[in-house]
Amino acid sequence: MAIYPVILSGGSGSRLWPLSREHYPKPLLPLVSEKTLLQETACRLDAVADQGNAVYVCNDEHRFLVAEQIAELGKIPATIILEPEGRNTAPALTLAALYLERLDPDAVMVVMPADHVMTQPQQFVAAVEQGRVHAADGSLVTFGVVPDAPETGYGYIKRNAQLEGGEAFRVAEFVEKPDLQTAEEYVRQGDFFWNSGIFLMRADRWLEEISRFRADILETCREAMHQGAQDSDFYRVSKTVFLGCPADSIDYAVMEKTGRAVMVPINAGWSDVGAWTALWKVCPRDADGNVIQGDVIAEDTHNAFLVAEHRCLATVGVEDVIVVETADAVLVASKDKAQDVRKIVNRLKESGRDEHRVHRQVYRPWGSYEGIDAGTRFQVKRLCVKPGAQLSLQMHHHRAEHWVVVKGTARVTCGEQVFHLHENESTYIPIGEKHRLENPGAIPLEVIEIQSGSYLGEDDIVRFEDLYDRIQEN
Questions:
Q1: Are the C-beta atoms of residues 84 and 95 closer than 8 Å to each other?
Q2: 5, 207, 432, 436: which could join 393 in a potential S-S bond, CB 3.0 to 4.6 Å?
Q3: Which helix (H) or strand (E) holds 64?
């Protein structure tokens, strides 16, 4: 039986704000190495399965970022399934299993969130080999992390009787996140393991079990897949159908109810890096216990997490703090309050602000743009267009635009005219005129865009042609 990686790339990672945002969430960030967490997860599975078998499930708005990060690794997935909106992990896994059911009736899935860290991935590979025989026999295998501390931020799995032929156990029960005293007792007993949220199972067996316990999820996902279609690298499920799918996790929907649950212990330096303190634990630290990223000067500073993305960050006489500086926000928090960062995100949402959704630099399939300045009836952006890429053929009802090329060569469509602009040359796009910006060159194209008009919102875009199939998003 072939193993198929199923990588679930959902969630916004709100406790890692301001680095993690809804439109550029935790899995897509390089938090512990030069690779992003998504890329680290994909590479971790190289020793387990053919990456050509990999199925990714992600939110529709992240599709180009996910596809680009996979391509940077030189990997070609089986497909990338797009969810119109997140419905937790049980529907996501069900979509992947339904896809694989068509592809290979004997498929075995190794299911992993895209935002976890393992400092000893070889131990994970050995655990997968341990669990493979049980998955082939129809068990739903989960991996329990050997705890090294009484952690209150994780759920736990209690083991039952050991199975023959290796280090695997029947599952006695799944336990919710405990208080500190209970967690200390779990660690003392030695029968409890952190719930990693990683699974190994046959696709057909998952579909049987989800049918038993959450038939409503299965039927909705089946219809959403049936009415969906392959679109280049992506499989688009029916938005109308999928939005009616109930939300539930793999654990709640099936694993806590099934009699087929088996646990394999792992000791692989695992962390879900769900908060800044968890990230501090897995990142390299200096002699004072500080994690330092960027232009940071730390004087008499101990056990801190310090990130500077755009300017010099200096600290004096502090300890056990988190300071994260980005272009549009600065977080300062005590490490023992790291879980409460999500409260800041909630307040940003409630006040109608955008800092929880996007960074100042916003990524698009053609490249990115960054806000530089804004005022009454004007704003200034810096556009960076990738070689060979192009913006959609579009028009605006309420704004005009001036483009100044500062690097590279631009091909411009403005009405019936098509012409080239070189460095230090500019052009004007009137209100209501169809236009397009392209990069025909081999280096990134950088353009300063000055917008002026009565309304400057991103929703004032009418697309007529688009390489990236975004006309439906008008």
A1: no
A2: 436
A3: helix 63-72
